[in-house]
Design brief:
This protein has helices at 22-28, 49-62, 77-88, 106-110, 113-119, 133-146, 161-181, 196-207, 223-241, 268-281, 290-302, 327-331; strands spanning 18-20, 32-37, 67-73, 92-99, 123-128, 151-153, 187-192, 214-218, 253-255, 311-316. By secondary structure, the chain is an alpha/beta fold. β3 (67-73), α3 (77-88) and β4 form a beta-alpha-beta unit. The termini are far apart. The protein binds pyridoxal-5'-phosphate (PLP). The site of pyridoxal-5'-phosphate has 20 residues, from α3, β7 and α8.
Length: 334
């Protein structure tokens, strides 16, 4: 498996640190918890989309694109990292933002990631919740082509086989760190949304026979749908890499019991997880993804699903810029 065969623009700050969370581990009294800091990828406050964009933007450049189109929720971290990457490459960037939460909070709609999208010079356009965002992007691409532009369309979350290569790479990077430090790990957990992160990781882990189970904590879809999405993308990613069939259906595990009311709506345990990591470890999570992933991790520790003596790595996918769009939820009752 040779990632260097694929075009890539090296922009992320890699490798991201792997750190032990002593105070959180002690507080929970269960497994030894480590964190892989993909919130520190360096681009416009960091996050997991930067690894995917290294491969996606290289493909865009190779195809002669001068304009990038992508989509996400209003407080999309993916949209913000894409806007920053496009700025770095001197490309125009059009973001279609879907109003999934229906919030009319001015900070949700204009602060946090949205503020940064605009600072990076991206054009932002809203679409109502439930819109067919892929079709919206295709129609915008058509309009821009008619104007003589060369648009490159990135799917939501950068989750296609090209983007997932970024997380195949992360699996290799993490394994290297574990091997260099003699750290045997029992499991890896992460938030899972548009599926590229989990699909890339599981492909990399299986292709190297790492023998480390991976658990995704869902943020939107129910378990069956989430696992099917991740598995389908992992299959296509393995095919792209020349190791078709390496991921089995049972390797893809998601727990979607921490979603709550829906995408982008934090629960009490999401907010508790954000506060715990902030107060115990000085680490910022986010209310949409990593906060829900960490809430799952904390609950599993408390319930003894992750036993004492185990070593668990939490992949921190970033998203802290979104905190500034969710200040109302975080300050309520404080
Ligand atoms: C996009 C995102 C995720 C989910 O990753 P997917 O590859 O979409 O599954 C997790 N955390 C943060 C902060 C994100 O922005």
């Amino acid at each position: 498996m040779h990632l260097a065969h694929f075009p890539r623009i090296f922009l992320a700050h890699l490798p991201t640190p792997l750190e032990r969370l002593d105070r959180l581990s002690r507080e929970l009294g269960g497994p030894e918890i480590w964190i892989k800091r993909d919130d520190c990828t360096g681009l416009s406050t960091g996050g997991n989309k930067t690894r995917k964009l290294e491969f996606l933007m290289a493909e865009a450049e190779q195809q002669g694109a001068d304009t990038i189109i992508t989509q996400g929720a209003t407080q999309s971290n993916h949209a913000r990292q894409t806007a920053a990457f496009a700025a770095k490459m001197g490309m125009a960037c059009h973001l279609l933002l879907e109003d999934r939460t229906g919030s009319n909070d001015p900070n949700y709609n204009g602060n946090g990631n949205v503020l940064l999208d605009r600072l990076h010079g991206a054009t932002t356009d809203k679409r109502p919740g439930g819109a067919d965002m892929q079709a919206e992007m295709e129609s915008l691409a058509e309009t821009l082509r008619a104007e003589g532009r060369k648009p490159y369309v990135i799917p939501g979350g950068g989750s296609n086989p090209t983007g997932a290569l970024g997380y195949v790479n992360c699996a290799f990077e993490l394994l290297g760190q574990l091997n260099d430090r003699g750290l045997a790990v029992d499991r890896i957990v992460t938030a899972t949304g548009s599926a590229g992160t989990q699909a890339g990781l599981i492909t990399g882990l299986k292709a190297t026979s790492a023998n480390i189970p991976l658990l995704g904590f869902g943020v939107r879809a129910p378990k069956e749908k989430q696992e099917a999405n991740v598995f389908a993308l992992a299959e296509r990613t393995a095919e792209k890499l020349g190791c078709a069939g390496v991921v089995k259906r049972e390797d893809v595990v998601a727990d979607c019991d921490y979603v709550g009311e829906g995408y982008g709506i934090p629960r009490a345990d999401t907010l508790e997880a954000i506060r715990m990591l902030a107060e115990l470890e000085g680490i910022l999570l986010d209310p949409v993804y990593s906060g829900k992933g960490a809430a799952g991790l904390i609950d599993y520790c408390r319930k003894g699903k992750f036993a004492k003596g185990e070593r668990v790595v939490f992949l921190h996918t970033g998203g802290a810029a979104g905190l500034f769009g969710y200040d109302a939820a975080l300050t309520r009752g404080h």
